[in-house]
Design a protein that fits this description.
The protein contains 11 helices and 9 strands. The protein is of the alpha/beta class. β1, α2 and β2 form a beta-alpha-beta unit. The structure holds phosphoric acid mono(formamide)ester (CP). Keywords: Pyrimidine biosynthesis, Transferase.
C-alpha cells in the first residue's frame, strides 16, 4: 500500500497512487461499516483529538465515529467552552493539547492555512477537516469514492461543479483531486462567485448552467457560503435559484445517467430542488455521507501506520 504522507493537509500534497490507496482501503471500511459489529483495532491504544473551530455536522460526526470504530480514544474539544474564549491562540491551544500526547489531531478552522501552521508545531499526525477557502481533503476523497462506486471509474468523466466556487474549499479540493485523476472539469456559476486565477486549474468555466451541464456525468452542487461573503455577490436568492439552481428541468441538460452530488449542508430551494436531492435514482448525497465515515477511517488508519513506522524507526535509532 502506497501512502507516504505524515499529515493530511490537502489533496495538493497527494500523488494519484496515494489517492487510490485511500480509496481502496476505504472500500474495506465500507464493508465493515455495514456489518452489525463495526469495530477494528487499527487505532488501538491511540488518542484522537477533534478540534472544530467552525460548525460541522457531517465531518465532526464522521471523524468521531471513524476513530471510535477503529478503537482510538476519541476526545472532542468543545471550542465554545475552551480557553480559546479567554483569548488563547490556536497555536497555544494546539501546543497544550500536544503536551497530552495525542496521536491524531483533526482540525477545522475558518482561516485558510491555519491547519498547515498548526501541523508544523505539533508532533502528531494532523488531519485538515476544512480550513477557510483553502482545502477540505477528506470531502474530496469521499466524493471521489462516491463517484468511483457510482460510475465504475474515476477517470475520463465530465464533472460539473456548480455554484459558489469562490468561497468553497470543497470545490478547490475536488478540482485538484479530479484533475490529478484526469477528468474533464467544468465550473459553473456567476462571474462574481468564480475565484480569480481559475484558469490555472485547467478547467472550463461557464456562467450558464444549460451550457455547462451538457453531457456531464457528474453534477456537483455547492451551497452559497454566506458566512464567507462580505458583500452582494448575487442579486437575490430567488434569482440565483432561477439561473443556477438544479431542478429536474435543468438536470435534463446533463447526461441521462448523470449523478447529483452535494457536500451538505444543503439549502433546498436556493441551489437545489428538494425533489432532485431526494431522488434515489439520481442523487448520491446520502452515499456521500456514508462514504465519509469509511474514507476518514482509511485516512486515519494510513496516517497511524506511518506514525507507528516513524516512531519505531526512532526507537531503533535510540537503541543503536
Ligand atoms: N460537507 C461538510 O463539511 O459538512 P459539515 O460542515 O456538516 O461538516
Amino acid at each position: 500500500m502506497s501512502f507516504r504522507a505524515r499529515h493530511l493537509l490537502g489533496i495538493e500534497h497527494l500523488a494519484p497512487d496515494e489517492i487510490r490507496a485511500v480509496l481502496d482501503l476505504a472500500e474495506r471500511y465500507v464493508d465493515l461499516n455495514r456489518r452489525t459489529v463495526k469495530s477494528s483495532d487499527a487505532l488501538s491504544g491511540m488518542t484522537q483529538i477533534n478540534m472544530f473551530f467552525e460548525n460541522s455536522t457531517r465531518t465532526q460526526a464522521s471523524f468521531e465515529l471513524a476513530g471510535k470504530r477503529l478503537g482510538a480514544d476519541v476526545m472532542n474539544m468543545s471550542v465554545a467552552q475552551s480557553s480559546v474564549k479567554k483569548g488563547e491562540t490556536l497555536i497555544d491551544t494546539a501546543l497544550t493539547l500536544n503536551a497530552m500526547h495525542p496521536d491524531l489531531l483533526v482540525v477545522r478552522h475558518p482561516n485558510s492555512g491555519a491547519v498547515n501552521l498548526l501541523a508544523s508545531k505539533v508532533n502528531c499526525a494532523v488531519l485538515n477537516a476544512g480550513d477557510g477557502r483553502h482545502e477540505h481533503p477528506t470531502q474530496a476523497l469521499l466524493d471521489a469514492l462516491t463517484i468511483r462506486r457510482a460510475k465504475g471509474r474515476l477517470q475520463r468523466l465530465t464533472v460539473a461543479i456548480c455554484g459558489d466556487i469562490a468561497h468553497s474549499r470543497v470545490a478547490r479540493s475536488n478540482l485538484i483531486l479530479l484533475g490529478k485523476m484526469e477528468n474533464r472539469i467544468r465550473l459553473i456559476g456567476p462571474p462574481t462567485l468564480m475565484p480569480s486565477g481559475v484558469g490555472e486549474f485547467g478547467c472550463e468555466v461557464y456562467d450558464e448552467m444549460k451550457e455547462g451541464l451538457k453531457g456531464a456525468d457528474v453534477v456537483m452542487m455547492l451551497r452559497l457560503q454566506k458566512e464567507r461573503m462580505d458583500g452582494g455577490f448575487i442579486p437575490s436568492e430567488r434569482e440565483y435559484y432561477h439561473r443556477y439552481g438544479l431542478d429536474a428541468e435543468m438536470l435534463a441538460y446533463a447526461s441521462p445517467e448523470a449523478i447529483v452530488m452535494h457536500p451538505g449542508p444543503m439549502n433546498r430551494g436556493v441551489e437545489i430542488d428538494g425533489e432532485i436531492a431526494d431522488d434515489i435514482n439520481r442523487s448520491v448525497i446520502q452515499d456521500q455521507v456514508e462514504m465519509g465515515v469509511a474514507v476518514r477511517m482509511a485516512c486515519m488508519d494510513l496516517l497511524a501506520r506511518n506514525l507507528r513506522a516513524e516512531r519505531g524507526a526512532k526507537a531503533v535509532g535510540t537503541l543503536v
